[in-house]
Amino acid sequence: MKPFFAAIALIGELPDTVRDRAIIIPMRRKTKAEEVARLRWRPFLRECLPLRQQAARWALDHVESLGTAEPALPDVLDDRAQDGWEPLFAVADAVGGEWPDRARNVAVRLSGSREADEDSMGVRLLADMRSVFEKRGVDRIPSAKLIDALSGREDRPWSDWRHGRPISARTVADLLRPFGIVPRTIRMPDKSTPKGYRLADCRDAFSRYLSVSSRNTATATESQPSSGDGIRNNGRPVADGEPALRPGNGFGGGVAAGEGQTPAADGLDEYEAEERAAIQQEGGA
C-alpha cells in the first residue's frame, strides 16, 4: 500500500490508532492580544495554485526515484514514527541541500520523544488510576467512584470523553482489559458488593507500563479519610491515630495489619473472603 497523508485539525485527543500513526503538530489558540491575519479561502487557493502546480510537476519528475528510495531513519523514532516520516525523508533527500538535516531534526523534535505506550489512552488511564489509589489510600475502589475521581481532573479527557459526557464504566473496562485488568465484584466495608477494581490486580500493569517519574507524589498518609470508597488497613476503615496503607511494592498498595491483628492463614482478610464467596455465588446464579 502506498503511503498517503491527510490533515486533521481538532481540539482534544486523536484516537490511539490514529495518533500512533500520525505526525502531530501542536497548535495553540491565539490570545486576544495576538494579531493574526485572517485566512480567506478563495484568495488562499489563488496564491497556492502556482505552488501546487510546481509540487505536482516535481513529484512526476521524481516519482520513480522516490518509489525506490530507502532514506536513513533516526533510531530515536519508534517504528510507527519511522513509517510516517520515511516518505518525507525521501522527499527531503531528493531536494537536497539543507533539507535532509532539517527534516530529521524536525522529526526528532516532533516525534522523537514519543513512545506508543506512553501516548496511549490506556496507559494514561493506568497512570491516573494509580494516582487515585495513592491519593485515597485504598486498596480497592468501585467503578463508579473511580469514574467520579477521573472526571474530576480538568487536565484529562475523562470528564468530556464523548459528546460532553464523562467516560463510562464500560469504556474504562475496555481500556484496561489489554493490561490484564478487569472489573470484579469487590466487598466494601458496608457489606455492599459493587463492581470495581483492586490495587493488587493492577500492580503488575503499573510496574510494566508506568515509569517512576509518572507517579503522583501524594502518599496514603497525606490523603484524607475516604468516604467508604475503599478498604484500608486489612479491610477496616482507618481510625484516628491508626496507620494508613503502608507502601507496598513501591505503589502505596501494601496493607498494614492493625495492632494485635495477624494476617489470615490463607492470605485473605475477612472482606476478601466474603468477596470471594460473593463472586462464587454470583457465578453460580
Tell me what the structure shows:
Helix 3 packs antiparallel against helix 4 (99-111). The protein has a 3-stranded antiparallel β-sheet. The chain folds into 2 domains: 1-9 and 43-113, no CATH class; 118-284, no CATH class. Residues 216-227 and 231-268 have low confidence and may be disordered. 44% of the residues lie in helices and 3% in strands. 21% of the residues are buried. By secondary structure, it is mostly helical. The protein is built from 10 helices and 3 strands, in the order H-H-H-H-H-H-E-H-H-E-E-H-H.
Element layout with pairings:
Blueprint: H1 16-19, H2 41-68, H3 79-95, H4 99-111, H5 116-119, H6 121-136, E1 140-142, H7 143-151, H8 169-176, E2 184-185, E3 195-198, H9 199-209, H10 270-284
Antiparallel strand pairs: 1-3, 2-3
Helix pairs in contact: 3-4, 6-9
Can you list the strand order of the major beta sheet? 1-3-2
Low-confidence stretches: 216-227, 231-268
Estimated radius of gyration: 26 Å
Helicity range of the residues?
40-55%
Structural shape: elongated
Query: Count the helices. How many?
Result: 10
Q: How many strands in all?
A: 3
Helix and strand composition category: mainly alpha
Give the count of structural domains: 2
Average pLDDT: 76
Whole-Å distance between the termini? 51 Å
User: Tell me about the biggest sheet?
Assistant: 3 strands, antiparallel
Percent in strands:
under 5%
Order of helices and strands: HHHHHHEHHEEHH
